[in-house]
Amino acid sequence: MKRIADSTIRRLSLYLRFLEDFEARGLSTISSDELAARGGTTSAQVRKDLSFFGSFGKRGLGYSVPELSSRLRKILGLERDWRVIIIGAGKIGAALAQYNGFSERGFLITAIYDNDPGKIGRQVDGLTIRALERLSSDPESAAADIAVIAVPASAAQTTADLVVDAGIHAIMSFAPRRLRVPDDVAVKMVNMAMELEGLSFALTNRDSDRESD
Amino acid sequence: MKRIADSTIRRLSLYLRFLEDFEARGLSTISSDELAARGGTTSAQVRKDLSFFGSFGKRGLGYSVPELSSRLRKILGLERDWRVIIIGAGKIGAALAQYNGFSERGFLITAIYDNDPGKIGRQVDGLTIRALERLSSDPESAAADIAVIAVPASAAQTTADLVVDAGIHAIMSFAPRRLRVPDDVAVKMVNMAMELEGLSFALTNRDSDRESD
DNA sequence: GCTAACTTGTGAAGAAATTCACAAGCCGCG
DNA sequence: CGCGGCTTGTGAATTTCTTCACAAGTTAGC
What we know:
Two copies of one chain form a homodimer.
Chain A: H1 6-24, E1 29-30, H2 32-39, H3 43-51, E2 57-58, E3 62-64, H4 65-76, E4 82-87, H5 91-98, H6 101-104, E5 107-114, E6 123-124, E7 127-131, H7 139-142, E8 146-149, H8 156-165, E9 170-173, E10 186-189, H9 192-212
Parallel strand pairs in A: 4-5, 4-8, 5-7, 8-9, 9-10
Antiparallel strand pairs in A: 1-3, 2-3, 6-7
The first copy, chain A, binds a DNA duplex through residues 5, 7-8, 31-33, 41-45, 47-48, 50-51, 55-63.
């Protein structure tokens, strides 16, 4: 299969949410134009995104809501549950463990790890914090699909190495660092402070634009 | 000024973190190549990113760490603090209010709002939850620079409208929705479930690649 | 002061993503 | 059954982003 752009996948994920809304409201068909309006893009973009995976619509009519939504779920691999472990039981890790929005979407948090002896053994939302050094020998991590890395930036790379050694092939990292991993391991970096800095730039730029007008 | 790509800004934000590391370690110069290696990009990309804003380096030598880092802070608008309000005191909103990583980077959380009468008046990390309908009349929101929207997706657009009416020009939204706002309002969408779906896609795709090998 | 070893800054080339534009197909109606 | 009104799917055109490649500038050593 031709390599699919990240931006395409992100949009598919978004379209799926709109379809779920439509499904809940009992609507049966939707056009690329309607999806585009909700997603802030163009109908051509929607059709192009879908075209990488097949042709799911009917000319003149649009897309069947339940069919397209089931197709997207299949494309995105959401027909099954995924087991997620969290590494780092600090503020971010603990907040994620308590957030139930993930399990609602099929991402089940099965374990949480830390390397601080003071934290090991404590409970976070029903999960016992485990010792990080046990990661590779733990049955929970052996069965895990995705690791969330929520450790200090300075420990991110060694943590990633542990995760890779444990046979996990997908990482969501909160550390603002490029993680070096083998090609067959997918990494997504998430960092809200960086997003805020993007807004800071936009605000600053807006002000200077006005001054120079 | 020529429009700068989002991806460029995100990288500048990342470079800045590396520079801060270097600064802390007392190093005085850095080359585009070293920045690139840490950021997972190329030296040409680093130089191009910087070139939109001026030329900060010395040929043959590289960049002065303190100077470049100060320049980037200025470009990103991080020489001042920003006042951030959070709207929605649910799991996400409350977690953000308690997280101190933002204030460390100059994003001060000054107020939190909700429209659930049962929540109004309660404390979250030293902040009293305020009534959402008071948003536009509140001095806190009038002085706010950035609004974080952490309400259910179905309420996101009306919340965004309130925020815009309150004169706020930057929004970070956790709702997987395109928000309709005037051109001079910057919006960043953050959604971890969508990132996880990206990983789900990568894992699914990896598996099917292997099957077909 | 000259040479060698580096590294920047930047047009030009190349790659990737988005938008255009239109043929082809579908539905409903008379 | 044929026509008019829609909407998809997709090559081609366009725009945007990244990489290449090299002249120009800097330092260090001798």
